[in-house]
Amino acid sequence: MRLIRLLKNDLAQESATWVEQGLISRSQAESICALYGADYDAAARGARGQRVLVVLGYAFLGLALITLLSANWDNLPRALRMGSLVGLTAVLNGYALWLYRGERDRAAEGVFFLGGLAYGASIILIAQIYHLGEHMPDGVLWWALGTAPAALLLQSPVLALLSVLLALVWFLIELQLGFFAPGLAFFLALGGYVLYAGRRSVLLFLLVVAGTGLLLEVALGVWWSNQALVMRFRAEQFPVGVGYFILAYALSHLLYAQPSTKARDYGTVLSLWTLRFALVCAFILSYNDVWVAALKAHWTEQQDMWAVLCVVCGGALVCAWRARKLLPVLALCIALFVVTAAVANGDNIEHAIYWQVLANLTVACFGLGLIVRGVQHGESQSYFLGVATVLLLALLRYIDLIGDYVGTAVLFVVIAVVLLGAARYWQRRHAAGSQA
């Protein structure tokens, strides 16, 4: 019996590895494990937990080395301090390279990660030794560049995640100091390559998507600004941001339509996060002050804005056409163009209340649509997200608009009717499904 249990555990762990490498889908792995009585979920959780523990273990080893050096730092001669930092970094990365040549990629990945931490500590401490602080973000840039070759060599999502995170920190520090750093595009391309060629990494995928959107928004801010500091937000950037997430939504459908399991997983994740962005955006637009500010804005860069929107929405339509989801994406693009044109060319702030009402109705319909979708397809996540949307909208509007007890009571009664009706519909739907 013990041998059978060990074989089942091995099968479940191998299935989890195959899913991670994109060889089979999660549903296929679950079916294989169910056929032989193995627990796929437990194995997948164990594999993820093991990877997290390994990364954290190497991280704390790096912190231990840095702490030991720091404890006796002032008592060491300058040449010895310099040599120990360079030597430690060289030994760790050399050992990792030796492991890689021996085809021990996972072990090499961990040691390269530790070597990357030692490299960053070396940059910081050597700069402290020789008082090199002319432009502080350059140290973060060199740290990010130093971790990039190992990420490319091993096609490692962990190392690429470290490199992209450091690049984003460098980009944000430069931005805070009033400088634009287009070099972030190199690190985003590095992350994209590792996502394509390496193992599956949802966190790296989301970071690359978010970083690309951030780079686009800041680049537009620089383009439309006549001064060195680019921290001021322009009204034209908001429609472009919405257009970018429409592109991401269309891309999610295109990825989900691919035969690769990894691509379908990325498509599912991207679809979920674009849905969350749409909810956040809709709640922001449900306030009157937002529309007043938009109607008051000057909108002096409309020509460039429309050109960028045409490119972004054109890419979204191409992705949607290839994924056979053209109609919903086309409807979103048309709505974006119509609303942007109406607001950008309108100057009557009294119309803000109409836009606010429209936004609130859109959020309510969106929430009810999620409830219906959850009931019809048996998706509990969509169902409860729709319920949460309706409840949150009611709470925000109560705080914003309604102050008397009668209005509050009427509002709560309407919400209760909607929720109880949805619950009843859910029950009847599942009862009909079980009888069939």
Task: Describe the 3D structure.
There is one protein chain. By secondary structure, this protein is mainly α. Among the domains are: 1-75; 233-347, no CATH class; 350-436. The protein contains 17 helices and no strands. The protein is globular, with a radius of gyration of 27 Å. The chain starts with a helix and ends with a helix.
Task: Looking at this protein, list some descriptive labels.
single chain, 436 residues, mainly alpha, 17 helices, disordered N terminus
Strand content: under 5%
- Sketch the topology as an H/E string, one letter per element: HHHHHHHHHHHHHHHHH
Shape: globular
What integer value in Å does the Rg equal?
27 Å
Class inferred from helices and paired strands: mainly alpha
Number of strands: 0
Low-confidence stretches: 1-8
Helix share of residues?
over 70%
Q: With helices defined by DSSP (H or I, 4 residues minimum), what is the helix count?
A: 17
Largest sheet: none
Distance between the termini: 39 Å
* Whole-number mean pLDDT: 76
How do the helices and strands line up, and which of them pair or pack?
Elements: H1 2-20, H2 26-35, H3 40-71, H4 78-101, H5 105-129, H6 137-154, H7 157-176, H8 184-197, H9 202-223, H10 237-256, H11 261-285, H12 288-296, H13 302-322, H14 326-344, H15 352-377, H16 380-400, H17 405-435
